[in-house]
Amino acid sequence: MIFPDLRPDESGAKEYTDLVTLIGSGTYGDVYRCQHKQTKTWYAIKRIKEGKESKMGLTGDKFMEIFAFRELSHPNILSCKSIFFHGARLCFALELCNTSLKSILNSGHSLTAEDRRTAYYQILLGLEYLHRNHISHFDLKPDNILIKDNSGSSVFKITDFGLSLITGRFRGPSIVYTGPGFRWTPIYRPPEVFGSTLEVGQSSDMWSIGLTFFEMIIQTSVIQAEESRIPAKIADLLGRLPNDMDPGISDWHGSFINLCGKDYTPPAQPYMHTLFERHGVRLEERQFITKFLQYSPEARITAADALQDPFLANCNKSCNILDRDRYERNLPPLQCVMYGPFNEKIRSNDM
């Protein structure tokens, strides 16, 4: 593996141009576009906001993010060139991608069925690699899947390991669950977390990535509700409440049912099927998506098994959705323009 350079001081910051061009901000901090002075390669510098727990901003989640970027090396995982401090704040020098899956979906560009198969395959390659290396992401969603042009091919890359944890390294697939606000953006949170399960693990990621794949079909969030109403929306999606026939959910299914409300009645047809019909999804893809969206974590397909699923057999291993997306929106081709992680335009002669 190629580990990123980790500098516990500010010497690493001197290798890059000044943090001037801001390309995005969030609750975690800011992202700047910077150039490595020696190689002239452009990077997205993620500069973490100073945390209350540490003078150097090293909260527990940042230790995990450092660990992930130091240990992981895979074409479908965002790579990290170096980790250093700047102004006593932790910085990650990350490869600069063209856009995110979320931005593509928000653009109104409909992904073809074959493009989706390619995307599923590439994302699952990255996720299987994470799980094989005992890391659960715990915040998979379209925002955290970036897309980079590689000589005309679109490469999907999983990013943002701030909520990730080591799981499944010892006997048993899970870690101890630590509270109702544990990990996850709420609308991608699996049902066991709402039910206050005692354990979560790699199978919990499979629910989130299943919703992400579904979103690639319908181009909007599958679950749309305030947090308190999400359990009922999950039941609508699956067309039923969880029950004792679902393996491995006895410790939480009662709590989940209570959150749906005593007057809740499932729809006559699972909303999942309604969406499939509305968007003309063929049977093989319906069956594939359904394998991810199961109440029981034990019943969900694993990333390794999903890669071997007949639906992905003989799929194209690469596609070019980036230029196709730009053509449909009457925009210049990618050789003329690049986009940072937050869709800020970068002139090609700046790259």
UniProtKB/TrEMBL annotation:
Ranges of residues in domain Protein kinase: 17-312
Its protein name is Kinase, CMGC CDK
Q: Which GO terms describe its biological process?
A: mitotic DNA damage checkpoint signaling
Where ATP is bound, by residue?
A: 46
Q: Does the keyword Lyase apply?
A: no
Q: Which PROSITE patterns match?
A: PROTEIN_KINASE_ATP, PROTEIN_KINASE_DOM, PROTEIN_KINASE_ST
Q: Which family does it belong to?
A: Belongs to the protein kinase superfamily.
